[in-house]
Amino acid sequence: MKHVSRLLPDTEGRAVSYLEQRADSRSIVILVHGLGQDGDDYADYLTAVPAQHSVAITLPGFEPDSLPGVPAVSLDDQVRTVAAFLRAIAEENYGKDLVLVGFSLGADIILRLAELNGMAGTHVPRLSLALLLDPNVNQSTMSISSLFARADPRDPLPAFKQLIALAPDRDWFRDLCRYLVKIVRKDFVQLKRLSQDVLAYWQPDGYDQIGSRLAAVSAMADRMRVVLSGDYAEHVAPMREASQGRGGGAITFELTELRHFDLIAEHVLTRELRLAGEVSVRQ
């Protein structure tokens, strides 16, 4: 497994960093992280599946060593960067199936990518599988983004304290503490900008929007799977209903008993990709 950094065409000179585990598998898995995270959050998965060619991208502005003062990258520019990255990876690995995985913010980026697919700078190759882990449904599922969107980037400490206060129990407290350790190393200006953009991307409530967006993703992938943490129980049925009859392919939904951040644990990712099929997860 190695760290790589490269410039991508059609992205205004933005550099992209990523982790890559190369293997002679028939597919390549591309993983997109959540808000404030980076490619290293998938390092355990990449190490655990050496037989699977996998790449974990770090979105511009979320590098662990990113410097403050660099202009923040908008949501749509992040989407164009991911699109350019997918085109480059597909060209370098011609003949391999493309499997695209997005967690939380990463899932939202896939939703936006599907909406913009085919427009200038956003065309992406056909996906074998799109796997979305806890995409937002509407603003009711955006407690962290809502918190950061309102925060003062010159003094994010109050927002960090409020983040910890969101924990309903000890397990969630542990998860949020680990998440906080990760994001305090990042440029909060970028966190705030993307939080604002994603918040504006979603309506306050309802399911028609998520339904049409899921259908758009299913239209650019041979197969699509949506995996949800336990907090999404009330949303599964209306999400499924809203996505039906809109074109595209069939969408498989799975509601788990896991917490949000558990969805990117190595054993969970391995299981979900195995269940989705067509992925070389055996060592």
Notable traits:
single chain; 283 residues; alpha/beta; Rossmann fold; eight-stranded mixed β-sheet; 10 helices
Summarize the structure.
This protein has 283 residues and is an alpha/beta fold. Helix content is 40%, strand content 18%.
How would you describe what is shown here?
- By secondary structure, the protein is an alpha/beta fold.
- It has one domain: Alpha/Beta hydrolase fold, catalytic domain (Rossmann fold, 3-Layer(aba) Sandwich).
- Helix content is 40%, strand content 18%.
- It is built from ten helices and eight strands.
- It has an eight-stranded mixed β-sheet, sandwiched between helices.
- The chain is globular, with a radius of gyration of 18 Å.
- 45% of the residues are buried.
List the helices and strands and how they pair.
Elements: E1 2-7, E2 15-21, E3 27-32, H1 43-48, E4 53-58, H2 75-92, E5 97-103, H3 105-116, E6 127-133, H4 143-150, H5 157-165, H6 170-183, H7 188-201, H8 208-219, E7 221-228, H9 236-243, E8 251-255, H10 266-276
Parallel strand pairs: 3-4, 3-5, 5-6, 6-7, 7-8
Antiparallel strand pairs: 1-2, 2-4
Helix pairs in contact: 2-3, 3-8, 4-7, 5-6, 8-9
